[in-house]
């Protein structure tokens, strides 16, 4: 990652869908190319007046028409749609008709009080926040139990961040979180993997007494992966889930309609239990010279998966009709991990619903996939089937990328 000087001043760039002000730029017009957020479009807190200043972003993510920004001080800011209380800023009347003007700029989640947050994850209309002490807070929609806790009787949403309730014995802290469309995953400090929320397509990885997928769970339930490997990362798509282990193994389960779980769709439409992804060295030889690399990070879109190796190479599998895979599936079928060609070593990557961003060791941002609303930042709305550098950012020092369901962010720095 690019070295940051203490004298650097930060800037956040945004592009893509903006129908509810989710880009934080103060209006509701889509942006077809990266646009820097001006001073009035960043934050409202007095200590950050005039933009982010030296309070640096560490994560920018989002769900369906809303966004979540996390700073290095552990502060959470949100903007965009708030019809299910997903902004965590308290109830707002009239939100179902159209968002109020203050929803169009990043505003702090004051209901978090002084709780420092280490990581955030956004589902379609709910948010998870992993605190520095290892607890998980949740807010937004709870129609499918995705908050992992109970709301007030008869209420299916909550604007106030409250702890996820885990009844599993021996679990005191969590270290990783992930949010899908309507379900969530987490890893505990002791190495257990948990899931909750909607599960009708098998995305919870648990079956009932009849061998059918558990339809939903309003609280975290423990999954069995393997006794030999410890989980290190979880991801959640629309209706599928995944776990990466410390040894580089990948376990997938849930909906496999497009081969996103690594199995030929005609043989298995759904995987009810975590299944190890088959990726042999023989397959790798056709793609890269280093056959000894292992997977070190995952990214899940709605129906596709992106995997990164320790030597900075990307692989993809799943749905490909909109360019989500960034490679041809003619020679390597969609359910088999295929190499995504990007110039340079990829240091981080994120998935939107149907498109992707990758950041290289040279600070270059690549995008590919679905491009309606200008999500790929190309200046037009033509789908992108091979990774392309985001041209308007090639002269910038990019240090981080993030995205929501149909919009993108990156953050840069310049010396002052």
TrEMBL record:
The keyword Repeat applies. Residues 81-101 are annotated as: Disordered. Residues 12-410 form the RCC1-like domain. The keyword Plastid does not apply. RCC repeats lie at residues 10-73, 74-133, 134-190, 191-247, 248-311, 312-362, 363-414. Keywords: Repeat. Gene3D superfamilies: Regulator of chromosome condensation 1/beta-lactamase-inhibitor protein II (2.130.10.30). This is RCC1-like domain-containing protein.
């Amino acid at each position: 990652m690019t070295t940051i000087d203490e004298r650097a001043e930060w800037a956040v760039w945004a592009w893509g869908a903006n129908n509810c002000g989710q880009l934080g730029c103060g209006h509701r017009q889509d942006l077809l190319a990266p646009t820097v957020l001006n001073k009035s479009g960043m934050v409202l807190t007095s200590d950050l007046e005039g933009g982010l200043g030296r309070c640096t972003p560490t994560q920018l993510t989002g769900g369906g028409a809303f966004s979540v920004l996390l700073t290095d001080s552990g502060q959470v800011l949100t903007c965009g749609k708030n019809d299910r209380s997903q902004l965590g800023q308290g109830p707002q009347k009239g939100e179902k008709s159209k968002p109020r003007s203050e929803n169009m700029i990043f505003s702090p989640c004051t209901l978090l009080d002084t709780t420092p947050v280490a990581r955030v994850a956004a589902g379609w209309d709910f948010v998870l926040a992993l605190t520095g002490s290892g607890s998980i807070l949740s807010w937004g929609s709870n129609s499918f139990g995705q908050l992992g806790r109970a709301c007030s009787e008869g209420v299916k949403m909550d604007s106030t961040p409250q702890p996820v309730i885990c009844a599993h014995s021996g679990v005191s802290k969590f270290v990783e979180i992930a949010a899908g469309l309507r379900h969530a995953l987490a890893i505990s400090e002791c190495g257990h993997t948990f899931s909750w929320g909607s599960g009708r397509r098998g995305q919870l990885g648990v079956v009932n007494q009849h061998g059918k997928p558990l339809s939903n769970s309003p609280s975290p339930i423990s999954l069995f992966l393997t006794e030999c490997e410890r989980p290190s990362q979880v991801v959640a798509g629309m209706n599928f889930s995944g776990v990466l282990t410390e040894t580089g193994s990948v376990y997938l389960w849930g909906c496999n309609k497009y081969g996103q779980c690594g199995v030929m769709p005609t043989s298995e439409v759904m995987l009810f239990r975590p299944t190890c992804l088959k990726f042999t060295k023989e397959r790798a030889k056709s793609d890269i010279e280093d056959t000894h690399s292992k997977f070190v990070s995952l990214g899940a879109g709605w129906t596709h998966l992106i995997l990164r190796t320790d030597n900075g190479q990307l692989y993809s599998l799943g749905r490909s009709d909109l360019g989500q895979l960034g490679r041809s599936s003619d020679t390597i079928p969609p359910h088999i991990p295929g190499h995504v060609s990007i110039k340079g070593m990829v240091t981080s990557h994120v998935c939107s619903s149907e498109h992707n961003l990758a950041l290289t060791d040279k600070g270059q941002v690549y995008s590919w996939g679905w491009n309606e609303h200008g999500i790929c930042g190309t200046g037009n709305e033509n789908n992108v089937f091979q990774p392309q550098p985001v041209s308007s950012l090639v002269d910038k020092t990019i240090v981080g990328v993030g995205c929501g369901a149909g919009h993108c962010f990156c953050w840069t720095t310049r010396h002052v």
